[in-house]
């Protein structure tokens, strides 16, 4: 992939230079203005439409699958089961565990405090906390990823990584509010930013192509280029310089778009990520400008 990115930069610059030299300065300046207008318009359209498109066509479906992933989740019962497996269940009541689940703060700290009050040692407490961590950071995560696969979002399921803090807040909401509220929280925190970012990139590409074609059609119909016939040497070399600038602009737009995509997917995709961009020799200069 790194080779493809570098080759693309080289080809874009070569082609735009040749086209600029062939078309001359006056024709090239029109093409450059068209590219700038198309870029600005596409950026505006993608920013304005990405979230509404996601909310209209995808959010409800995504939320439904997150709901399915957590519908069987019962954090209080999980803690009780783990206590029973260790032979500690007789020392705790369901109401005590329920109070622990509903308390603010960190779940592990609350469980540790309760077990300390009951006279348990550090080894017992640490063992149970490890199982709680596995449940929050692995089991529930896996269920959500499997549901994303069923929703047809398998390409992005690896990108959806829910932080420990967010997962604990989700568990708290399951215990104190509702599973629907917990699903809303997970969708807004972990899923929506990724999906909105991907949609924004797609809308940008489509809008850019449409705007370029539309501007070219307007220029052709208006006959703006009909009076430009004789192209002198000075005009050609000026066009060559302008073609170089236009090539740099195209490379910058591609780098900006890929940077948005990498941020949207949290650099989790193997096809393209910030690490691959850093392995390039030419493309990295454009990518690093936006990636910072």
From TrEMBL:
It comes from the Bacteria. It comes from Ruminococcus albus SY3. This is Colicin V production protein.
